[in-house]
Amino acid sequence: MTDREDDIAKLIKRHNQGELTDNERNTLIDWVNESDENRRVFNELTSENGVQLAVREMYAFKRQHHTNEPAVVELYQGKTYWFKYILAAAAIIAVVSMVWMFAINSRKNNPVAVTKTVTKKTFQDLAPGGNKAVLTLADGSTIVLDNKSNGVIAEEGKTTINKKEDGQLEYKAQGLAATEGAARYNTISTPRGGQYQLTLPDGSKVWLNAASSLKFPVEFSGKERVVQLTGEAYFEVVHKDLPFQVVVNNAMKVQVLGTHFNIMAYEEEAAVKTTLLQGKVRVENEQQQAVTLQPGEQSLLTSGGLKVKTDPDVAEAVAWKDGKFKFVHADLKAVMRNLARWYDVQIEYDKNVPEKSFSGEISRRLNASEVLSVIEFAGVHFKIEGKKIMVLP
């Protein structure tokens, strides 16, 4: 690697961080305009897909050459490390030299120099989660949705249940809802490592995250629409005269008319979080303490009661629905709980693991090893053993 390549790599890093001076920007523009190859490399290393590809290439390189983990690089002063800067770091030589050389020189079949100590290492991996769920019908019978072909998979009264492509289940009423008799309920449950989308009989849409379940009537009748949630789900509720209510863990109620909101209610988390994107919701706990949320606000239910956060990172709350992990000043254990649910693994910690907080985002479509390789730049290490991830200092 030449001194100029090193300088350009540093400029690309500063570009991705928004820190270029005017002179540095002009230098980078001149380099980009020198050749089509330079322009291609620049575009690859500054696009979201490009840096994710670079992370994949970095990991493939590590696996091929059985190297140790990349050198730890502090990318941000203090205790917070930014994943988007780490992604940039994974793509350019200014942070980890072998990545730049591999990303460019491997296409030319040139040898890649490795200056760090090389040791043997056994690499294991864990695939990301996907569209997996089990549907329990009113009679107690179950349907494993990931094993079923698309099309009508069941009928409940006057409602047909249709499995669509891309992990979607649709309930469609064929006539007027029944007004007599006991209501019939279905339950859709996702395992750890699963997710699913659901269109309810009233047309409302629900995205169900991993290790979650939703119980709902096959027909909405009566004075309100009521569903029961455990885990996490994002709702887009169709506006109707009948109020819509989500009962969370049999301990909290979220009442709406028509709105978009996310509820995160995993038992292992310290708080139940309801984040409102659109409309208005009323959140009430068992003690009948209640708050009303406006768009952009979040309620937090803890052992200490119910309170409102007026400036949450809304994108963080719903990133999972869009195929991303996003963290804002999240501690390491919070990050690992997210990974544990998505990759269906157990987490064990070495007693000497340092306390750190993380901010940034990364795709949930990557294998676990690739996600962990990115996090390792912040100064922690990982070892995958079967269905267990060891967190090491």
Automatic annotation (TrEMBL):
One of its GO terms (molecular function) is sigma factor antagonist activity. Gene3D superfamilies: 2.60.120.1440, 3.55.50.30. The keyword Cell inner membrane does not apply. Residues 324-391 form the Protein FecR C-terminal domain. Residues 187-282 form the FecR protein domain. The chain crosses the membrane at residues 85-103. It holds the Pfam family FecR_C. It comes from the Bacteria. Keywords: Membrane, Transmembrane, Transmembrane helix. PANTHER family: PERIPLASMIC SIGNAL SENSOR AND SIGMA FACTOR ACTIVATOR FECR-RELATED, PROTEIN FECR. This is Iron dicitrate transport regulator FecR. It comes from Niastella vici.
